[in-house]
Design goal:
Layout: E1 23-30, E2 33-44, E3 48-56, E4 61-63, E5 72-76, E6 79-83, E7 94-98, E8 101-104, E9 113-120, E10 123-129
Antiparallel strand pairs: 1-2, 2-3, 3-4, 5-6, 6-7, 7-8, 9-10
C-alpha cells in the first residue's frame, strides 16, 4: 500500500487515507507546542480535522486552520507568524496568531508569497517572492 500522508508523533495526517495529499513545509515551537505548517487537509491523530496548520502539545493535536498553504512558521516575542500564498485573503502574505485566530500583520508588508522568517538585531524579517 502506498502511503499518502505524513506521520509525525501521533500522526498529522492519516497515512491510510488514499485521497489525501500531504506536505509539511515548516515546523517551529511556540508556547511549548510543536506547530506544523504545510499543505494538508484531513484527520490529525484520530478524527480531528486540520487544514494546512496544526499544533501538538505533546499529548494531543489541535487545529489552527489556515485557508491557504503554509510555507513558513515562526515564533518570535510570544507571537506565532505564518507565511504563505495568502494574497487573495485581504492582500497580505503574513498572518499572526492572536486570541486563537489568524489576523493580518499590516498593509503591504511583502509583495509576494512569504516562505521564510528570521530575526536579526531584534527585527523580524520575512523573505519570499512573487
Amino acid at each position: 500500500m502506498t502511503q499518502h500522508g505524513v506521520m509525525l508523533g501521533g500522526g498529522v495526517i492519516d497515512a491510510n487515507a488514499p485521497t489525501q495529499v500531504a506536505s509539511v513545509k515548516a515546523l517551529c515551537v511556540h508556547d511549548s507546542d510543536l506547530i506544523v505548517g504545510g499543505y494538508f487537509v484531513g484527520p490529525a491523530g484520530g478524527s480531528l480535522m486540520v487544514n494546512n496548520i496544526c499544533g501538538y502539545d505533546g499529548m494531543n493535536w489541535f487545529a489552527m486552520g489556515a485557508s491557504a498553504d503554509v510555507y513558513a512558521v515562526y515564533s518570535w516575542d510570544g507571537v506565532l507568524y505564518i507565511g504563505g500564498p495568502f494574497g487573495s485573503i485581504n492582500g497580505d502574505f503574513i498572518r499572526k496568531w492572536v486570541n486563537n485566530q489568524w489576523s493580518t500583520v499590516g498593509d503591504n508588508i511583502l509583495l509576494g508569497v512569504t516562505n521564510s522568517f528570521a530575526v536579526y538585531d531584534s527585527i523580524l524579517y520575512a523573505g519570499g517572492g512573487v
